[in-house]
Design goal:
The protein is of the alpha+beta class and about 160 residues long. Helix content is about 25%, strand content about 35%. Strand 8 and strand 9 form a beta hairpin. The longest helix is centred in the N-terminal third of the chain and has 36 residues.
Length: about 160
Amino acid sequence: MNWSSIQDVIDWGTVPDWFGAVGSIASVLFVYLGLRGEIRARRNDDLRIRATQARLVSAVAEIRGTSVLRVGVANESDAPVLDVVVLARLVPPDDPDAPPVGLAAAKQVRRIPGHDVHDLFVTVAAEHRLRPADTVLVDLTFTDHDGNRWHRIGAGQPEPVG
């Protein structure tokens, strides 16, 4: 087969045509990446605004004896929080990197008004004996005034549910 006749038929363009094509592709890519970054920034801003009330809701566990925890759920916002679910979990003292172990069934509170602290007393399952040096994490799930569902572990940042 004679390739020279094919090369004579196909017009590969000029160097300026190639630079124009590469420039067009690069500009489309640049616009796409900029738009994607802007969308991500707006989502982060939206999440930050939505989490304003959620950051003001927290829970702290206090060990009372060997089988009872007092969990104080504080709502420091102006609006009530609804459908609060509290789950106390023990961080294994011999392996802090291991997943926490559930201490008891979850407790629920229907509503906690704004600027209020609600105390829950959790009776720990019989197979667990608490010591004053134990670390207890509180899993807190609740619905804010705007209907957004949130989950917070210990002192961590609230994360949207669903």
